[in-house]
Each structure stands twice: as structure tokens, then as C-alpha cells.
Design a protein that fits this description.
Blueprint (H helix, E strand, L loop, with lengths): L1 H11 L4 H5 L5 H6 L5 H5 L13 E12 L10 E15 L2 E17 L13 E4 L4 E18 L4 E16 L6 E16 L4 E18 L8 E6 L4 E5 L3 E19 L5 E17 L5 E19 L5 E17 L4 E20 L3 E18 L4 E20 L2 E21 L4 H14 L3 E14 L2 E17 L3 E13 L1
Antiparallel strand pairs: 1-2, 1-21, 2-3, 3-5, 4-9, 5-6, 6-7, 7-8, 8-11, 9-10, 11-12, 12-13, 13-14, 14-15, 15-16, 16-17, 17-18, 18-19, 19-20, 20-21
Length: 490
């Protein structure tokens, strides 16, 4: 155990012997992200030893704020985040380790119709009331991954552990509160068939638990809404109440990578999984609060062709999610959804002695189908987002300057909303949600920053970065995000 704790400390601590003995170039992690790998693209820890990334460490402090009228009804009008994140890659003997630790502090303003962690994760059973208030949230995420060759080296094994805990509460009575615990294990394998071909496999085993409380230590008791779908709900006067969401996730993915004779590389992944959650309300006499299940299918394909002038890259990623909810009152499946997301990217990156540049064209297609049998509600939306992304980085004396711009447009291809048995929440939640999901919008993202060193600490790089995001619809308004980061790299 002492050796394990020492390893975790070295991975996440920004100060120590690693910063004194290693020489680091901030361009190396930049270019490593463009080289397809089992670890970077599909999170196969067994391939960590083959990842073309030198040993590194980084610690980042980041603050951002998102605001504007263009938001869904169950999103806050303004969200402020502060992040502290540290990560590192180390090689000890035949083992390669990667670790990450992050803390996030969030302040949400004027958030309504949500008493839990995430009302958009698919589970339709949400506690809420009609009061909008400010929320304070604290979350910690830790991840550690390790990979090593087995025997002659044609086989490699790896394991990734993810741990996420958090809590949040509203400052306005009756002060709803949640606690979240999420644990995931990812055992993985890589088999190098030949010098040009490799197979990989990753299994995912996840356990989730979220607890909700409302009404304790309060003298204000509004009606508690138990959302059970898209417009369907039940409401009761409640002095105090609590519930527990317990879930399991199982996934399996298979990967294949091939290097051609002309130096091109192909990386493919296909897989799927199932997620199941049960809700129990009350403590002394627990009752059924609903059951939820989701099946996913995913695919990924990447191609790269490096040369001396330009390194070309193309990617395609597909995710299909099918979910359903079993209503606790009618004891039947009442909610169904089908979400399809397809992302594509094509372009090039080039590296010269004192200059780096990339130009990519990106597309994002979304299909959203949601139905509620009780409220007789159907929502169907198809949107397509097209953007052009440009980034340039160059050296001025002993510093690196970088700046980038991404511009595009999200277009509504089709959309329909029908509520044959409307409820009070149809006009409050469902129609505004459909309007945001199906809106056309102009997209603009920009970033800029500088990397520098102090002469007294030549092995440490400092990075100051700024970024901004902007979305606008002429009718519904705009949404903006501004962020500033300070990073130490070593």
C-alpha cells in the first residue's frame, strides 16, 4: 500500500523530483493528440506503453462563466465553474501509469425543475419543484490507468479506475440536496498480431448511486413534483422526503489498428452496452420510484497519413442511445427515446521548427426522438452543425504564442412536437425544450494564449490561456462562455 500511495502522489503532485529531472517541450503533448492510438482515442489502458507521448505532468487552474437566454428550461441562467486539475504520465520499468485528479466548484443561478445532479442524462424520473434558486456544487474526480506488456510483449494488459463523488444543494428553501458516487473499472487487453496490426478490447463495469433529500431543516414546503417523463408528473405536499437512485453500467468495445505500407494508419472500434437504474423513495417503507434502462451502440473510425509537409487526419464517431422508463404508477413502460449522434472531422496539421498549425472541418449530426405514452407527447428533431477550426502556434524568442478560431452554423433539418394530452408542464418545460433543441444558431469559438519559462526554473513551462464560445439565434437570443486557464507543465 505505501508504494501505491507514493505512485499516486507522484502522478498528481506538480512538485517533486520529476519536475527537476525531466526536460519538457510544450509542443510534444500538442502533436501527440493528433496521432491515433488505442489509449488516446478509445481509452484502452493496455496500450499506454505504445502511446507516443513523453513523460509529462501538468497542473491547471481554470475559471469560466456561461450565461445568456439561449438555454434549456432545466439549465441555469448563469453557471460559474472553478476547476483545479492535475495529471501526469510516468514510466516505471515495464509499467506505464497515467493519473488525473480534479476538483470542481460550481455556482448555478436561477436553476429550476431539477433537484438532482443531471436532469439530461436520460433518466426521466426527476424530482423538482417550481421554485428557481441558486445551487452550490462540489465534485471530485480521480482516474488512474496502468498498462504493461505480458510475456514476449505481443500481449499487453491494462486497468483503468475512475472515481467520481459530488454533492450539491440549493440555497433557497426547502433546500433540496443530492449526493453522488460513481465508480468504474475498465480492464483491457491489446494483442499485437504483427508489426502492422493490433487488436484491443476494453470492458466497462460501473456502479452509480445518487441520493436526494428535500425539506429537512426547512419551514417552507412547496409542492414536490415527481417528473415521470415528457410532461407526465405527479405532485404532492411534502414536509421532507428522500430517495435513492442505484445503477449499473456494462459495456464492451473491440478495437483494431492497422498500419499500411505507405505509412497510413487506420484505427476502428465498435461496441455497446447497457445501463440500468432503479429508484427507491422513502426510508422506513421504501416504494418504487421508477425503473430506467438504456442500450448503447458506438463506433469509431480514424485515418491518418503523415508526411513531411502535412499530416492528414480523418475521424468518424457514432453513438446511438435507446432508453426507456417504466412508470411506477401504471407499472408499464411509458417513456422511450432514441438519440443518435454522428461526429466527423477532416483536415491536416503541420509542424515546422518554430511553427505549428492545424485546419479541420467538423460536422455534428443529431437525431432526437422522444415519446411519452401517458401525456401522448412526441418530440422529433434533426440538426446538423458544420464548423471550420483553425489553430496556429509559433515561437517568439523563448515563448510560444497560439491562437485559434472556430466558426460554424447549426441548422435544423427537421422538427416536430405533438402533445395530444398536454399537462401544465407541457408549456413550461417541453415546448421551450423543443425550441432550444431545434433552433438554428450561429457558432463562434476563439482561443489565445502564451507559453513561457522563467530562467530560474528551466524545466517548468507556464501557460496562460483564454477562450470564448458564442451561440446566437435571432429569435431566442444568445449563450456565451468565457474561460481563463493557468497551467504549469513539466
Amino acid at each position: 500500500m505505501p508504494n501505491f500511495l507514493k505512485l499516486v502522489f507522484l502522478l498528481v503532485c506538480p512538485w517533486g523530483v520529476w519536475a527537476q529531472t525531466s526536460r519538457f517541450d510544450t509542443l510534444l503533448p500538442q502533436t501527440a493528440r493528433y496521432v491515433p492510438s488505442f489509449w488516446l482515442n478509445v481509452q484502452n489502458a493496455a496500450a499506454l506503453a505504445d502511446w507516443p507521448q513523453p513523460q509529462y505532468g501538468s497542473t491547471q487552474l481554470s475559471v469560466n462563466q456561461t450565461g445568456g437566454a439561449l438555454h434549456r428550461p432545466q439549465e441555469p441562467t448563469v453557471r460559474q465553474n472553478a476547476f483545479l486539475n492535475t495529471e501526469g504520465l510516468r514510466k516505471i520499468g515495464k509499467w506505464t501509469y497515467w493519473g488525473q485528479f480534479g476538483y470542481q466548484k460550481t455556482h448555478d443561478r436561477s436553476l429550476a425543475y431539477s433537484h438532482g445532479y443531471d436532469p439530461f442524462d436520460g433518466n426521466p424520473f426527476v424530482w423538482a419543484d417550481t421554485l428557481a434558486g441558486d445551487w452550490q456544487r462540489d465534485h471530485i474526480q480521480a482516474q488512474i490507468a496502468a498498462g504493461t506488456p505480458i510475456g514476449s510483449g505481443r500481449w499487453k494488459a491494462g486497468l483503468t479506475l475512475n472515481y467520481h463523488v459530488g454533492q450539491g444543494a440549493r440555497s433557497r428553501d426547502p433546500k433540496p440536496f443530492y449526493r453522488l458516487r460513481d465508480l468504474e473499472l475498465r480492464p483491457s487487453l491489446v494483442w499485437r498480431v504483427s508489426d502492422r496490426a493490433s487488436w484491443g478490447m476494453v470492458a466497462y463495469i460501473g456502479l452509480k448511486q445518487e441520493e436526494n433529500e428535500v425539506g429537512y431543516y426547512s419551514d417552507v414546503f412547496p409542492l414536490l413534483y415527481r417528473l415521470r417523463g415528457y410532461g407526465t408528473f405527479s405532485r404532492t405536499p411534502t414536509v421532507s422526503a428522500e430517495r435513492r437512485i442505484a445503477g449499473k453500467v456494462y459495456r464492451l468495445t473491440v478495437q483494431y489498428q492497422h498500419f499500411t505500407k505507405n505509412n497510413s494508419s487506420w484505427l476502428a472500434q465498435i461496441g455497446g452496452g447497457v445501463r440500468q437504474e432503479k429508484i427507491r423513495e422513502g426510508v422506513a417503507v421504501p416504494t418504487n420510484g421508477g425503473q430506467f434502462s438504456e442500450h448503447t451502440v458506438e463506433a469509431f473510425l480514424s485515418w491518418t497519413k503523415p508526411n513531411q509537409q502535412r499530416n492528414w487526419l480523418g475521424e468518424f464517431r457514432l453513438l446511438n442511445q435507446n432508453g426507456r422508463g417504466r412508470d411506477p404508477i401504471i407499472n408499464a413502460n411509458s417513456v422511450n427515446y432514441n438519440w443518435l449522434t454522428a461526429n466527423a472531422k477532416y483536415g491536416f496539421w503541420q509542424q515546422e521548427e518554430r511553427r505549428f498549425q492545424h485546419i479541420f472541418l467538423r460536422s455534428n449530426f443529431k437525431l432526437i426522438n422522444q415519446s411519452d405514452q401517458i401525456s401522448r407527447t412526441d418530440l422529433n428533431v434533426n440538426t446538423l452543425l458544420l464548423t471550420a477550426d483553425w489553430l496556429e502556434r509559433y515561437s517568439v524568442r523563448k515563448t510560444w504564442l497560439w491562437y485559434g478560431l472556430e466558426a460554424g452554423y447549426r441548422a435544423r433539418l427537421s422538427g416536430a412536437f405533438v402533445a395530444n394530452r398536454p399537462t401544465p408542464l407541457t408549456a413550461t418545460l417541453m415546448r421551450p425544450d423543443f425550441a432550444i433543441l431545434s433552433t438554428n444558431a450561429l457558432i463562434m469559438n476563439a482561443s489565445a494564449g502564451v507559453d513561457w519559462q522563467f530562467e530560474r526554473f528551466p524545466n517548468l513551462w507556464h501557460r496562460l490561456g483564454f477562450s470564448g464560445q458564442f451561440q446566437r439565434n435571432n429569435t431566442l437570443g444568445s449563450r456565451q462562455l468565457a474561460q481563463i486557464n493557468y497551467t504549469i507543465l513539466y
